[in-house]
Amino acid sequence: MLPPTDQQTPTAALLQAPEDQALEQAIGDMHLLLEQHGYVIALYPSGIRPEHERRLHAIRSVLESDRIALVKVDLPPLGVAVLVRQLRQLSICDFSPGVIASAARLLSHYIYAGALLNSVAKLDRVPVGLKSHARSWVPGSQFAVLAGPEPQLIKVGPVAEPLAGPTFRTHLLVARGQLPSEWVQETLAPAWQVQAVQETGVPADSPRWWGTAKLVEFAAHLPDISVLYQLVASVRREKCHWCEMELIGDRCAFCSSPLTAPLAPSHTAAPAAPRAALESRTPSTGPLQLEAGRLSGP
């Protein structure tokens, strides 16, 4: 898990893997979190091991609780860590638990997550052509891969196509693996015109996700809580017809029920990134976000 951005950003609870904690203990811990915080948002990556995902659903079923949201996101490990921290930032604002949980899908569109790799031979989460696979066997080859919001793969070299980046102001978070390269800091960061570059430890799941430990993982993101607040607040809110939780988007994050009526096109697509931040808002107590991935770092 990433460290908080300021003194107001709360921490998160890390859910243990099935082999590290008995089911009875996991149920007890979840019950305690519900008693302390009221609602729990469990955010986990789509690449999580099946037995870990089954554990999450088993806990919710045993507790028979409608106050647990299981939110799966299709981001690489460092992108998941960034998204978790953003939800932690929003949890002190005046959003309801349903809005914060459903905001995960919205905010993931504004996280540019990727990695610099020495090989894409074992990469199966981003489309890789036969030519790129063949180039992976050439000594010294390096590839820049963008997993989201739109997948892209380029071969790094003197003449290379640009890696599509954000059109809004971001900070770049960098996690150095076993690949000795300064390309992300010296080439990618200036090209994307990021405002700041921070470094962190490599998430434990990154080598498995990217297919190699020789990597430099990166994620460009919106760091300002006021901009995040404006982005979420700009989307129309709905009420779930099944559990009556408030939500944004087309599906409830707590019970997974879709809206009864289709949303207008302006509400189904992610809105443009805000150019100006809102004025400071008075924070209020919000729900706790949980991260089910096995992430490491400072």
From TrEMBL:
<protein>
    <recommendedName>
        <fullName>Serine/threonine protein kinase</fullName>
    </recommendedName>
</protein>
<feature type="compositionally biased region" description="Low complexity">
    <location>
        <begin position="265"/>
        <end position="277"/>
    </location>
</feature>
<feature type="region of interest" description="Disordered">
    <location>
        <begin position="265"/>
        <end position="298"/>
    </location>
</feature>
